[in-house]
Design goal:
It is built from 8 helices and 7 strands, in the order E-H-E-H-E-H-E-H-E-H-H-E-H-H-E. The protein is an alpha/beta fold. It has one domain: Rossmann fold, CATH 3.40.50. Helix 1 runs parallel beside helix 2 and helix 4 packs parallel to helix 6.
Amino acid sequence: MTLVNKVAIVTGSSRGIGRAIAERLGRDGASVVVNYAGNADKAQEVVQAIESSGGKAIAVQADISDLGQVRQLFDAAEAHFGNLHILINNAGTFLMKPVIDTTLEELDKVITLNVRGIFLALQEAARRIGDGGRIVNLSSNATIRSDPNTSIYAASKAAVEQLTRVLAKELGARQITVNAVAPGATETDMVPDMAREMAPQITPLGRLGQPTDIADVVAFVVSEEARWITGQIIGVNGGMS
């Protein structure tokens, strides 16, 4: 129970990698704010899973690309559990489409959630997380693979990585670490069928990643043992490059 007395917000945690992270932090003793955009039932399932394993959790709806809702999310966390210690920026969207066919509306949707949303949550966390806190952003292996049809998604995650590196320097004097975890192909409803099929062949460890593979690394990065790690992009991808 390495996170006892810690309070964590996990954005986009009603399913997939976010859910696995929220449940893992709950098992490690943190009080978890399960953020979701629209699926209240799924978010409550996560809360119940955390509580059934002896943890504390609440579900809070918020669109992280909306400043007012982001502030309400952080307000709810503090009202229920007290001072915030951990932010996991997991909420995001995926687009797989050639540059030539991508519409401005699609571009705006990806950038609004994956960059603006991350930025707003980071800004609020920088104001509210106490000294010695932890921030982890979810990036993607797409930033190093540069596969066809992933340009907008990969670009949005590259922006997340730069925000990570810069904010780590800005918050270092307060002993707040800021890192990014970059999953490879992982078994969620966002992973394309092609990636699901190809992963065992192109990944040295020979399988598709699981959400718990990512959650276990995040749990380490927010622990006291990771106090000397900041400004890093940590690939969690089974060796895929």
